[in-house]
Amino acid sequence: MNRTKITSLLVTALLTFSLTACGGNNNSNGSSNQPQNPTEPTESASAEPAESTGTTASGNPVTITVLNEGAVGIGVGKMEDLFAPKEKELKGNGIDITYTPGNPVEAFPLHYQKIMSGKLKEKNISIKAEDWGWGEPLIQKETAGFLAKNVPDIIVGETQMPGFAQQGLLEPFPDAMADEIRNNVSPAAWKPMEHEGKIYGLALQPGVSSLYWNKKLVKEAGIDPEKPITSWQELADNSKKVTEAGKGKFYGGGVYGAPNFGGYLRYGALVAINGGTFADANGQPTFNSDANVETVNLLRELNADHPAGLMVNNNEGTYFDAWTKGQTAYLIDGPWQVQQCKDNGLDCGMSPIPLSPSGEAANVTIGAAFNSVPKDAKNKEAAFEYIKAMYSKEVQQLVADSNVRSPILKEIAEAPEYKEKHPEMYLHYQAMSGNVQGLPTFAKDNSKVWQIWGDAVVKSLMTKGDVKAILDDAQKRAEQVTK
């Protein structure tokens, strides 16, 4: 790809995504229910990443620079220097910092970084952490780094990462490593980062969505709270029954449908299940397909079983507050809801997302922080050793013991003892297999095209207009942007 084209794509990428919508409820493993995603990059995020030379093959010491991801970050600087102050901080907050594999773990980020640091130290590699923020600040700094050819050895991000791969900005995984991942790692961890037969990124502990329900509210509507829903029709019918039983005090609910990435990521799973897509392989919109019309019609039905305006409220927190307060009965969301139900005193059921009449199991990654090696990274070999350590048995056992996300390593997740010990997370692991997708990147003006789609869905939900006609109009407007 020539330099002019890359520059043009990168300028477009600066305007690509607003990720704030998927930050509030995709917490991973840590002492807080919120990921540590600052709205502005810290002073340490100046674009001066790698500071050492040499490669693992040469035997010389190597320091790789890695961008922080909130769920596993413990600070900025040389990793080994961060352990003692972090331990002191956690102890001061009454958090247990002991950990024995196979037992519950509280201080997940600390132990994750200790294991990673130890495994890399064996290969003469040390880690330096940088904080470039999250969401738009992160995308902007990564984009500037690509343009200046001054990037860390490992970058991280969510929905922007597949676009970076498509633009030729990331290094493909070595073939042997890619084969190992395909054979031993859950598809949700790498499939969204596969492009033209190559893998360009890996997520330590990706999320996908499942269906949750408030057993108390469901029972009040005369529905068996222990029986999972298996079809879209049953979901719509049950949601309506709960709304009628609630008489304005509680509602059926269903799925967040706002015109932002929090909405697209969650109901995107319904689109995928029904065989629909947002874009084709060339990044051209596919908004008005019959499958998408059917999915949006389901969303319209579910919208009627929410308080007015809640389903499309751009403030994601408002939507999930209604769930945690027991005001809605059904919810499609990520695996963190297992623990959050317990934290909020809700007795929740969990099952795979119901299928449409002609649909098949599918899902969309959510809360998936993909780690990648840039083309211009200075220590690529060492960086790939870092990614290998992410799916090592020791690290993935730690993920399993956290019981907040399921491990991606099949050896651990498919062991009988894991299913017995962590039944909900095993359900989540099963949902990570098979047809798991990421959100696509459109050929031009990505954020504008997504907004066209989002506005069309809102119009479909909030008016009585013909859904097919609304999506036809959205398709036409989107094509004017992308072609």
UniProtKB/TrEMBL annotation:
InterPro entries: SBP. Residues 26-61 are annotated as: Disordered. Residues 1-23 form the signal peptide. It holds the Pfam family SBP_bac_1. Keywords: Signal, Transport. SUPFAM superfamilies: Periplasmic binding protein-like II. Gene3D superfamilies: Periplasmic binding protein-like II. One of its GO terms (molecular function) is maltose binding. The lineage of its organism: Bacteria, Bacillati, Bacillota, Bacilli, Bacillales. GO terms for cellular component: ATP-binding cassette (ABC) transporter complex, substrate-binding subunit-containing. It comes from the Bacteria. It comes from Paenibacillus catalpae. Residues 26-58 have a biased composition (Low complexity). One of its GO terms (biological process) is maltose transport. Belongs to the bacterial solute-binding protein 1 family. This is Maltose-binding protein MalE.
